[in-house]
Amino acid sequence: MNFNPWHHVEIGKEQPHIVNSVIEISKGSKAKYELDKKTGMLKLDRVLYSSVFYPANYGFIPKTLGEDHDPLDIVVLSQCAIVPMCLVRARVVGVMRMIDHGESDDKIIAVADDDMSVSTINNVNEIRPHFHSELKHFFEEYKALENKTVLVEEFQDADTAKEIILRSITKYQKTFGVAEEIRPVPVIG
Predict the structure, then answer these.
(1) Is the Lyase keyword given for this protein (predicted)?
(2) Annotated binding site for substrate, which residues?
(3) Full set of structural domains in the chain with CATH
């Protein structure tokens, strides 16, 4: 049996508040890597056509299935570029709603839970406003020279992001025949 991080890495016991995320693309990269769903290996999808680079670490949440039929995407804020295929505990703080080729393509926004430089951020509205603009601009522009259109909608809060995560876990379980019950961990405090 081949190891595939999408199917074999646990989402985490504290989901949907803190989730395991698998980084595909480091902050500052111009290369668009993505998980090959069949082999579980990381593949180079393309080098970005535009003169832009990823403004944050980017990856997916294992054992989830988004509306675009891929693992749910996650943007992980950290003071450092995290290497591809690194497993990161990510505290969910919000979501950027997007439409890509007419399909919903949500980007969960999180902070690296083990990075003290972002430890005070608990909700997307606590992230500096300029970063919101950078992230929105990146996703609106990174496919422009490929003649593809992406519509970035508003950023939404952590509660909305957690609802999306729970729906994507249920969709994954129904699609892949997993019989586990979803039991979110209550937030204390």
Answers:
(1) no
(2) 32, 46, 58, 142
(3) 18-162 (3.90.80.10)
